[in-house]
Structures are given as structure tokens and as C-alpha cells.
Amino acid sequence: MAERVVPEGQRRRRRPTKQGALLSAQLIVDTALRLVAQHGADALSVRRLGAALGADPSAIYRYFRNTDALLLAIADELVGRAQDGWRPTGDWRADLRSIGLRILASYQSNPRAAALAAHRTTGRAYETRAVEAILGVLRRAGFPDPLAVRLYHAFVDQALAFAAQEAAALALPPQAREADEDVWHAVYGKLSSDTHPNIAATFPLLAADMRGSAYPFALELLLDAAAARLPETAVSDEGQDPR
User: What is the pLDDT of residue 168?
Assistant: First the structure.
């Protein structure tokens, strides 16, 4: 896609698409997410989007100057969906836990898009709102600004790393995903205690645990470490206005 975006005031489409909807940035993003879910990265083309929207492909340039701009909008949409309905409670651990699990759920529900976009920094509205919200939770809890920033960085990178890894696994073809899961029994379950005593001793627990996500436990470890660094003089937010 070329660099020729149309100014904001000129973007509204005068005629509806063939499906009867007025073209908009949100409609393009929603359609792109659906196509990526079906076809992967190849779906991010003007031709495919235009056909799916029932619009002239060139109309997409009115909203996104190139495919990378569209990808950033998709990444921001996933961040926005993770925040949908979230409100701070004043309990910093509960609030961060909720945000982290929402990020994971958003990316797991759109695994192919997540695999493409989890590593991007968008600078768009939803991401900016998320940064502000997480820093607000940490600062209200009483973490000094330098530590709040470090914890923000660790929290977000942990959440996105787990989300991207698990999304990539979910995006695998079903046969490949099943083959990966079978390795635990086909290989590790047959290892001898003579050669691999630790695996043999823990195998039933190991095989069961590896079927699920490690993120909730890893998140609790991070929250425990953060709590240990919270200054003793910090005032509890409990009962205060969480805004």
C-alpha cells in the first residue's frame, strides 16, 4: 500500500459498501481481524480487504496509508478489547491481575492477529489509555515513580510475551498443535528414571501442568515480587476513590 492517506475531514464514504455499511476505520479493522483469523497474514492486502468489504480497494487508503498502519490499528484494537469493561477497584494486585488476564484472553481469542501484532508499539488511543491506567494503578498503590515504571515494563512485557507465545501455539494448524501436545507422552512419558530421574519422578504432574497456561502463576510471582518492594510507608488505596 502506498503512502497517500486522505485527510480526516474527507474520509467519510458518500455511498455505502455493497453490504450496505458505510466504510470506516473501525469496519476495516474488524474486517481485517476476521480475514486474518481465516487466512493469516496474507489477508492484509488491499485486494482481499476490498473484496470482503464490498468496496473499491483504493478506498482503504482514505483510512490507512499502508498495511503497516493497518497492522498497528489491529494491534491497538486487541489492546482495546482487553480493556473493554475494566474498571480499577483500588486493590492494585487485583487490578493488575485483571488487566494481565484480560490481555491474555484478548490475544488468545485472536491468535493469528496476536502473532502478527503483539510485539508492536502503536502509540494509538487504546494503548495510550492502557499505559495510563497501569501506571495509575502502580502510582496510587504507593510505588515510587522509578519503581512504578520498571514494574510497568516488567508487567506489560510478561503479559505480551505469554500472550504472543500462546497465540502462536493456538495459530498452528490443528495437526501440528496436537503433535506438539503428544510429545509429552510420546517422548517424556517414556524416559527412564535411570537416565532422567527428575523427569520420571515428576512426569504425571509435568504432563498435566503443561496442558495449561503458565501465565496466571507467573503473574502471581511478579505480583508477589512487586509487593515485596512496596515501601512500608505507602498508604493503602483501600476504600479510596480508584480514579
Answer: 87
